[in-house]
Specification:
single chain, 200 residues, alpha/beta, Collagenase (Catalytic Domain), six-stranded mixed sheet, 37% helix
Length: 200
């Protein structure tokens, strides 16, 4: 299947500033256009109401003894948002991914490190959290830059990319925020070749 357009439904949950979300959406869309060379449309809502819906955190996501929110519930939440979007497109076959953007700490069972996001390779839903991206300056610009890099990383997984060892590639593994800062907001040539083989 050849796609000439990529749709990203962004589902934000938590306490986000609307300006942050607007800037994030515009910049992510521009990055995807520039990086992939295909028409990318990032959007928040499926209606024409004009407002950005900010969802409540799914109550089933919180695990008290861990003190964080589990990603499994967030994947379910993301799949529900995807189903809503698919109804909008009707029977048209589209390349549609959902980016769940949250502002709280998340965890995956069996993983003890800091989790910035998660996605299944070739899956439909990516998750990114801004909670561990903050620094003591609470710079919204820096948080947004890091969130954009992690969004490219997790969305890359949904498009079929594995982790990459080429320095600077958005698909590099990030063990801490300093690793994120070392990455660029783009994919390396090797990763782009893999993407173009399957999606363009």
């Amino acid at each position: 299947m050849v796609y000439n357009k990529l749709y990203i439904r962004i589902a934000a949950a938590g306490n986000f500033d609307e300006k942050f979300l607007i800037d994030f959406q515009k910049e992510l869309q521009g990055l995807l256009w520039d990086t992939l060379g295909i028409n990318a449309s990032c959007y928040y809502n499926v209606s024409n109401s004009g407002g950005i819906p900010i969802y409540k955190i799914p109550p089933t996501a919180y695990t008290p003894h861990v003190g964080k929110y589990n990603t499994q519930s967030l994947f379910v939440f993301g799949k529900q948002r995807r189903e809503e979007s698919l109804k909008k497109f009707g029977k048209a076959e589209v390349l549609l991914k959902v980016l769940v953007l949250v502002d709280f700490e998340i965890y995956r069972s069996g993983f003890a490190g800091t989790l910035f996001g998660e996605a299944e390779v070739g899956g439909e839903v990516a998750i990114v959290t801004t909670a561990p991206l903050e620094n003591h300056f609470k710079s919204s610009f820096l948080i947004k830059e890091r969130a954009l890099k992690e969004a490219l990383h997790e969305l890359g997984h949904t498009l079929g990319l594995d982790h990459c060892k080429i320095p600077g590639c958005a698909m590099n593994i990030s063990k801490d925020i300093y690793d994120i800062d070392e990455k660029k907001k783009t994919y390396c040539k090797e990763c782009l070749n893999k993407l173009f083989g399957g999606y363009t």
